[in-house]
Amino acid sequence: MARTVTVPVWVLVVAVVVAGAMAAKPQHPERLTSCQTANKYGTAPSVLCCFNLWAQKHFLCMYLANPRYRRYFAGSFARNTVTSCGIPLPQFC
């Protein structure tokens, strides 16, 4: 007789929720161009800049490590821009 393996329903629900959450966070580094003035000149970041930073905060380490995206954080005031928007700087990038 063949044995069947049952998987609790909650395991399947968690898997679907996690997969959906990961898919719901698209990467759009080009939206960070709204922060270039603040990064370069130290001006206060705009509401649009902060909104876009919050939307992309999960990808900050990836952007900083990738030369293609690092340009969005070029400038001596980039750290101030991120913290001014209330986003904690990633500790381990």
UniProtKB/TrEMBL annotation:
<protein>
    <submittedName>
        <fullName>Uncharacterized protein</fullName>
    </submittedName>
</protein>
<feature type="signal peptide">
    <location>
        <begin position="1"/>
        <end position="23"/>
    </location>
</feature>
<dbReference type="GO" id="GO:0008289">
    <property type="term" value="F:lipid binding"/>
</dbReference>
<keyword id="KW-0813">Transport</keyword>
<dbReference type="InterPro" id="IPR033872">
    <property type="entry name" value="nsLTP2"/>
</dbReference>
<keyword id="KW-0446">Lipid-binding</keyword>
<dbReference type="InterPro" id="IPR036312">
    <property type="entry name" value="Bifun_inhib/LTP/seed_sf"/>
</dbReference>
<keyword id="KW-0732">Signal</keyword>
<dbReference type="GO" id="GO:0006869">
    <property type="term" value="P:lipid transport"/>
</dbReference>
